[in-house]
Amino acid sequence: MALSCRGVCRVGSVILLYGKQPVGVKASLFTPRLASTKSSSSLWFVRHYSPSQARHGIGRSIVSRLKWANEKYESFLQRRFPRFYGLYNTFMRGFRLLFQDAREVRKIMTRMLTDSTENQNLPYRDLEKLRQFRRDLIKAIPLVIISIPPFANYLVFILMYLYPRQVLIRHFWTPQQLVEFQGVYHTQRARHHWAIVKGMESTSNSVKDKQLKSRLMELCSKVRSGVHPVVSDVHAVRTLFSGPPLGIKRMYADQMRHLCPLLFLTPRLPAFWIGRRLNSHALELMQLDRSIVQLGLHQLNDTELREACYVRGLNPERLSPGQCREWLTQWLQFSTHLNESETSLYLHCMVLLTVNYPKHPHH
Asked: Do 113 and 197 reside in the same domain of the chain?
């Protein structure tokens, strides 16, 4: 049964227009006029598709093939280059976790706009998610920019291998690296502990009230001798931290620079800027403390408990969950009674109430 050239072109046009894949198939009858007279009664079955259905089918086919190719690639890496596959797997898992956090933050922000909720009225876990995501995002921006060009992932892999702690955020760390790097960061901030205590002792010479001066010197002496102070010891000198000489706007620049590593902030900024950053971060943590009290400390799981202790200056690596809960209970008893003008005392207690816990309990 012969077809003329025009007939072949017409049938080809129909197939090109409506697609070849059987997506949403609907059979119909088509009788070509240009067929030979002997076959004019022959019937042609042509499948019709909508353009959107065709595009959907092609897109699904492409995604399926890409997924298959990616699985083959991962299988090849795992079989031939196991160490590189470990980096690759950590990299991909990190991006999934980062995008998951981004979706959760977007939901939180949407609820805030819809319900006209103020930041301080958010539940503890939402507040903590916003705080941590903001810090992660600031550190992750350079990594994301580097990953944009084609084949730049390999450069990222090299950076991950050579400088994982410096260039990557926690999403791209293995569980072992998370514990190790938190220990490194705590060691870095612990180097400033005794400088902060020494600064308090030096500042006590300018305290005119003899009773307050004596209490401050006694508090510093307890910490130096390895005794863990109680909350009442700290509250006895709280007025010195809301005004001169240890208020957030009154203390010496060197003392503020030693406080910066406690919050993992850079001290290489002008003094007035450092003071503002210390104050805003302390207020944020104070709000988180109040949110924990509203939620109930018993509602935190072990991971959340350890993270809360770590953020407030305590290294929970060698502590049991019970010790972490005990310390955080004492911390909340201290912090929830502070005013916004006492952020300096809050920051100093990240040393006073952590450095000797739990070695020597107070008698």
From this structure: no
Q: Are 171 and 144 in contact (CB under 8 A)?
A: no
CA distance 79 to 186: 38
Assigned domain for 273 exists = yes
* Token reading at 123: 């539940």
Name the token pair of 185. Answer: 């960061």
- Per the prediction, the chain carries an average pLDDT of 82
Segment (H or E) for 46 = strand 44-47
The C-alpha atoms of residue 8 and residue 166 are separated, in whole angstroms, by: 65
Residue 44 has pLDDT above 90, yes or no: no
In a domain, 181, yes or no: no
**What letter does residue 150 receive in the DSSP assignment?**
T
Strand intervals (E) in the chain? 27-30, 44-47
| 72 in a structural domain | no
Is 170's pLDDT higher than 80?
yes
Map tokens 């280059």 to a residue: 81
In angstroms, the CA 250 to CA 247 distance is: 5
Three-class SS of residue 218? Answer: helix
pLDDT tens track for 104-121: 999 999 999 988 888 888
For the residues 10-33, what does the mean pLDDT come to? 39
Number of alpha carbons in the 13 Å side-chain half-sphere of residue 67: 6
Q: For position 15, what pLDDT does the model report?
A: 35
Q: Read off the DSSP letter of residue 336.
A: T
pTM beyond 0.85: no
118 and 154, same domain (yes or no) = yes
pLDDT of 92: 83
Residue 183 lies in a domain: no
Domain around 342:
190-352
Residue 353 CB: number of other CB atoms within 10 A?
Answer: 24
